[in-house]
Amino acid sequence: MKEELIEKKRNEMVAVAAALGLTSNLVLQCSQELDELLVEYQNNQLQQETSN
């Protein structure tokens, strides 16, 4: 599930960057949201590894 959200946000960021340029505020926003998703995913993975 989380992987799908990450991929969707990554694709959105790439599309926005292609349309508006890399310095667009919307690209920055997408990038920050993607970072948050990635951190959540990594934290969940670490929790699963330590609980096993």
Summarize, please.
With 52 residues, the chain is mainly α.
How would you describe this protein?
By secondary structure, the chain is mostly helical. The chain has one domain. The protein has 2 helices and no strands. Helix 1 runs antiparallel to helix 2. The model has no long low-confidence stretch (mean pLDDT 96). One of its GO terms (biological process) is regulation of sporulation. InterPro entries: HLH_DNA-bd_sf, Spo0E-like, Spo0E-like_sf. Pfam families: SpoOE-like. GO terms for molecular function: protein dimerization activity.
Secondary-structure map:
Elements: H1 2-20, H2 25-51
Helix pairs in contact: 1-2
Task: Give descriptors for this structure.
single chain; 52 residues; mainly alpha; elongated
Helix/sheet category: mainly alpha
Q: What string, H for helix and E for strand, traces the elements in order?
A: HH
Percent of sequence in beta strands = under 5%
Radius of gyration using CA atoms only: 13 Å
The tally of helices reads 2
- The global form is elongated
Q: How much helicity do the residues have?
A: over 70%
Task: Count the E strands.
Answer: 0
Whole-number count of domains? 1
Largest sheet: none
Mean pLDDT: 96
Report the end-to-end length measured between terminal Cα atoms.
Answer: 21 Å
- Give the low-pLDDT segments: none
